[in-house]
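Lecture notes, unit on binding sites. The following record was shown on slide 14. It pairs a sequence with oxa(dethia)-CoA.
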Amino acid sequence: MTAPQIKPATGAAYTRIHGVGGYRPVRVIPNSEVLNWIDSSDEWIRSRSGITERRWAGAEETVAEMSVQAAGKAIAQAGIAPEQIGGVIVATVSHLKQTPAIATEIADRLGCGTAPAFDISAACAGFGYGLGLADGMIRGGSAEYVLVIGVERLSDLTDTSDRSTAFIFGDGAGAAIVGPSDTPGIGKLIWGSDGSQRDVITQTQAWDTAFAKEDAVNGAGDETRWPALRMDGQPVFRWAVYEMAKVAQQALDAAGITADQLGAFIPHQANMRITDAMIKTLKLPESVPVARDIAETGNTSAASIPLAMERMLETGEAKSGDLALIIGFGAGLVYAAAVVTLP
Ligand code: UT7
């Protein structure tokens, strides 16, 4: 007797981003404020990173709140009802409550019914990882539309006395609705990891060593042991400049697109000098607009690509229907790149 065959699960042939939205916290932290914490200069921060200011979230601007605001804009732009969303993926490394996933609260508050909802930890590549998962879910037939959110409150994990990171990180949320398409709107995702470099960007301590269990139970945690993000900037910089340009080129090749056909280049906003080095290696023509959102937003990890995408569309730097090359890279180390059609 032959084994019964499982009915194949089939979904849309292709996918694309239907809408994008962002949320930027109200409080602006200019470089001048950072100089109260560390021995540095406005000139050094601008020339070494490209950052002039960043946004830091207030108490009310929680991971969930920022996500709901950003997602609301993406849903409106996509022109769909929240009930049509069949999956909510939240990429974050700074939601401090591990269980349950923040995605379920966000799905509930948005009115996404019983949509599967889960968090992923892929740092600055989180948005690309989420996009890849959403694409697979839709083409595999398990969802029609998927909400992908990149959200961070990195200020909670920033040691303001650490000269090598205090000026870099920012907070915010970016969201995208991924859904079916008649033509390919998300190229093959080139993604991966290099765990041998796991220590170059890392939380200083795990929560269990930061707070002794007895302290937690007694409510007597020692604030001096609060974990923060630590980064060994130079190796990350070198890896980003030399390895990530290759990954970006692979994403172009896999999509069958040449650099001059792009309507936008939207790299993770890690450092303006990394962006400039990638432009050179990719031989990106000057006519291709490049995301430089880091100047006003800092490095917002998983949120940086959708935030930059939203800004480029809002300012008219990039147009709906244009092709954009996106690439995220960061702690893990992890990376993800793809060519996408802008919503
Ligand atoms: O989002 C995840 C991925 N992250 C990244 O891709 C970040 C990659 N790394 C970077 O963007 C850069 O490495 C940083 C912006 C973090 C640092 O820039 P850098 O050019 O690599 O600086 P450095 O660490 O090599 O330091 C250069 C000099 C040193 O002085 P000397 O030894 O040359 O006299 C540092 O002591 O700059 C000094 N320095 C500072 N000076 C003023 C280091 N930090 C500061 C500071 N202000 N905040």
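Take-home: The chain has two domains: 14-181, 190-197+229-341.
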